[in-house]
Specification:
Helix content of chain A: 55-70%
Low-confidence stretches of chain B: none
Oligomer: heterodimer
Shape of chain A: globular
Structural class of chain B: alpha+beta
Number of strands of chain A: 3
Strand content of chain A: under 5%
Distance between the termini of chain B: 62 Å
Largest sheet of chain B: 6 strands, mixed
Radius of gyration of chain A: 22 Å
Radius of gyration of chain B: 21 Å
């Protein structure tokens, strides 16, 4: 399996046997961006293109259409309600709508400002994915890969272009992962902030507690220290949640009381718990998210033989790869056990053992990511609550970080495969890209890209 | 053979393929002579309120006005409509369809109905003036598609 001498030779052997300026990789096999080798530069070029393409697809036709798409009316209408001191009739906590209200107050009531918060959180997601992967896997390659993957995926792009709330939760999921890389005090602060914001947008945001909580539980601190830190984490998240309601009540001119927050929370929770019929045509059960069998067309405009579409269908190369890595790492964790994985962190890249499984090479990071991905999936797996593919968005963002870590570990031993994967992802992004930004398509080009009725 | 392919070549091919698919791989949205179905809503007064202004004919179809002067009989001229999909389109012959003409003659002034038309695409006006009220001035719009309605029916 050794690939020394291959066109993309980034193995530690190659790095140490050639002058550093030529190899372009550090002694530990990671990328040296200050002096990238020619081979490394080509991979950086491909990743850079994916980041640039993602930026283009997020900004092209941004603000189109100037009417509501998918569920935007729920959130924009209630953002207006907050600005006009009227009650919020939506069934989610206030914060997501308050972001939209702030944008409308700052830039006016039009499609651009409705969707601006989603765009900003979408950009934040790409940056966070890069930073989080870099910190979790101690690898510049992992950071670069994660930013490229998050940038060039249609699921994330479409939620950067719509006044919907799930992109905020995805960003907070990644922020909670970042918290897991910080020292305990900052872990609690950033973790509780991420979880509090996510919960204040939708109840399912509670999954953002998983990463900081698992990190605290797996730490070598004393039991009393862990208990105190976990309590502080929960209290911080709840404080942010109450603060979100306080802001909403304040804008509506209603006095704040903790009893009212509790009553509203109970009412909304009971409402959501009763939504179990799966009758809405857009619903999809969580096992179908692997395919996916029912991505949601967030908006479409047909007109004289041309169609413009915004779909939540992701980049299928990344989609299936991220699921494959998730299942593989879960199986590996089950096979080797959590304790072995926790002990075997930070194995040197470029070795067969490191490349075989992330749970062995970066056990702690992998367990944290898996816990976060599963934490956000748990409400839909464990209950019969109506589910939609957008409930998978936070898990998916986290799974892309896992995929990036896996690819960075594979790079030294299977460079051609990794390079080929990024080339394939680039072509798929070009093929599906028009569906992620309302570029006009002919009917036949549309049918070619979305051949299944469940995708349209 | 594959061993001779460099990573730079793979990267360039992937990037070019991606750019080409986005820029040129989206099919031809509409070609002259192609037929489509368009849905509109109309009120009886539209027959006297909807007009466009352009001196340039497009494959035999033209607006009723040029530089604010009527040059074509209303019955044969293109008129602006906003489809139920929210897109502006210039159509001729809508009010000449028998079922539509009959409805316009008999319907109450405030009644609105949906009209389905089979249309033949004639081209794109790069720049055209449109108005939706006979007493209003023309507003300039760009890249507006135009089509000839070969058959229309009211409210299915």
């Amino acid at each position: 399996m050794k690939t020394s001498g291959s066109p993309l030779d980034l193995s530690p052997t190659a790095a140490s046997s050639a002058p550093a300026a030529e190899a372009g990789v550090r002694a530990d096999g990671d990328l040296d961006l200050r002096r990238p080798s020619r081979d490394a530069a080509h991979l950086v070029l491909l990743c850079g293109f994916l980041v640039a393409l993602g930026a283009y697809l997020r900004l092209k036709n941004f603000g189109f259409p100037d009417s509501f798409q998918f569920d935007e009316h729920h959130f924009v209408e209630n953002a207006r309600n907050y600005l006009n001191k009227r009650p919020d009739w939506n069934d989610h906590p206030p914060l997501g709508k308050l972001f939209i209200a702030a944008s409308i107050a700052a830039f006016g009531d039009h499609a651009f400002s409705w969707r601006l918060p989603s765009l900003l959180f979408g950009i934040f997601t790409v940056v966070l994915a890069g930073v989080v992967a870099r910190r979790l896997f101690h690898s510049m390659w992992a950071g670069l890969f994660a930013a490229a993957l998050a940038s060039a995926d249609g699921f994330l792009i479409s939620y950067s272009r719509a006044a919907l709330l799930d992109g905020v939760i995805c960003a907070m999921a990644l922020l909670s992962l970042l918290a897991a890389t910080l020292e305990r005090k900052w872990l609690v602060l950033v973790g509780s902030f991420a979880a509090g914001v996510a919960m204040s947008v939708k109840f399912s945001g509670v999954g953002a507690l998983a990463a900081p909580a698992v990190t605290l539980l797996c730490s070598s601190s004393k039991r009393s220290t862990k208990t105190f830190a976990l309590m502080a984490l929960g209290a911080g998240a709840v404080s942010i949640y109450v603060a979100g309601y306080w802001l909403g009540f304040h804008l509506q001119g209603t006095p704040l009381s903790l009893g009212r927050v509790a009553a509203e929370t109970t009412r909304l929770f009971a409402h959501h718990a009763a939504l179990t019929e799966m009758k809405n045509p857009a619903t999809s059960s969580w096992p179908t998210w692997v395919l996916p069998s029912k991505p949601i067309v967030l908006g479409s405009v047909r007109h004289l033989g041309e169609i413009r579409v915004l779909t939540s269908l992701g980049n299928l190369a990344l989609w299936w790869a991220s699921w494959a890595v998730l299942f593989y790492e879960l199986a590996s964790l089950g096979w080797h056990g959590i304790e072995v994985s926790l002990r075997s962190e930070s194995r040197a890249p470029g070795t067969e053992r490191a490349a075989s499984s992330l749970t062995l090479a970066d056990g702690r990071a992998t367990i944290t990511i898996l816990a976060t991905a599963l934490g956000f999936l748990a409400p839909w797996v464990l209950s019969h609550r109506d589910s939609y593919i957008y409930h998978f968005l936070p898990s998916y963002g986290v799974m892309l970080v896992l995929l990036a870590g896996y690819l960075s570990r594979q790079l030294p031993v299977r460079p051609k495969t990794v390079f080929g994967f990024f080339a394939a992802a680039t072509v798929v992004a070009g093929f599906l890209g028009p569906l992620w930004c309302y570029l006009p398509l002919s009917e036949s080009a549309f049918a070619l890209r979305l051949p299944f009725s469940g995708w349209r | 053979m594959i061993g001779r392919v460099t990573n730079l070549q793979i990267a360039i091919v992937a990037i070019l393929a991606s750019v080409t698919l986005i820029a040129f791989g989206r099919g031809t949205p509409a070609t002259s002579g192609a037929e489509y179905e368009v849905r509109l809503t109309i009120v009886p007064s539209d027959i006297s309120n909807l007009d466009c202004e352009s001196g340039l004919p497009l494959n035999g179809e033209r607006c009723a006005f040029e530089a604010n002067n009527r040059i074509v009989d209303d019955e044969h001229a293109l008129r602006p409509f906003v489809s139920t999909e929210g897109e502006l389109v210039l159509l001729s012959n809508v009010f000449r369809a028998p079922s539509v003409a009959e409805w316009v003659r008999t319907a109450p002034a405030d009644q609105r109905i949906e009209v389905y038309c089979r249309v033949r695409y004639v081209g794109l006006f790069r720049r055209v003036g449109v108005r939706f009220n006979a007493n209003a001035g023309f507003e300039t719009r760009t890249n507006v598609p135009a089509a000839h309605a070969s058959g229309c029916g009211v409210g299915r």
